[in-house]
Design goal:
disordered N terminus, single chain, 11 strands, eleven-stranded antiparallel β-sheet, 9% helix
């Protein structure tokens, strides 16, 4: 009997979470001796926890990618966030995304990632992401509610060539 109640309680709890998945990208960006960055960021108010899944970075020439967290809030340039899977098309993301981000310096996360010319790198930010389950220990990156300094940035160092940065994330409304 206790086992049945526990299973029922877990099922009700699972149904109470409204999981939504999101995709955001820079699209193909041509840089000429310039750097670029994207930032996913909590709004000042009214947000939910955001679990980052992964980031996919493509560079047409060899490039260096870095990550940082908790920088001074980005204010430009707002990017488009698209719903994925069962998330209804008309839903708006409860967080902000910036391309060509002007985020301030944050705390470095890991070392430099070197992407070879014409290469693509999948940066696993959670074991929930497709292709990341067997990648070993991954400390999940979650942006908790709070303020605009709750952000995560992926940067490509100065280069001349094409770049595409795509992020995937999920939110769970209670």
């Amino acid at each position: 009997m206790k086992a049945c109640i526990l299973v029922l309680l877990l099922a009700v709890t699972a149904q109470a979470q409204d999981v939504r998945r999101w995709s955001m990208t820079t699209g193909n960006v041509t840089l000429a001796a310039a750097a670029t960055a994207v930032t996913i960021q909590q709004p000042a108010t009214g947000s939910v926890n955001v679990q980052l899944e992964n980031a996919i970075v493509y560079c047409s020439v060899a490039c260096q990618v870095s990550q940082s967290r908790a920088g001074t809030a980005a204010t430009a340039t707002a990017g488009t966030v698209r719903p994925l899977g069962s998330t209804p098309i008309g839903y708006s993301a409860p967080f902000n995304f910036f391309t060509a981000s002007d985020v301030g310096a944050g705390t470095s996360q890991g070392g430099i990632i070197y992407v070879p010319a014409g290469g693509t790198v999948n940066i696993c930010l959670s074991t929930l992401a497709p292709g990341c389950a067997g990648s070993g220990p991954v400390a999940p990156i979650t942006l908790v509610t709070g303020n605009t300094n709750m952000n995560y940035t992926i940067s490509v160092a100065s280069m001349t060539g094409d770049v595409n940065i795509t992020l995937y994330a999920r939110t769970a409304n209670q």
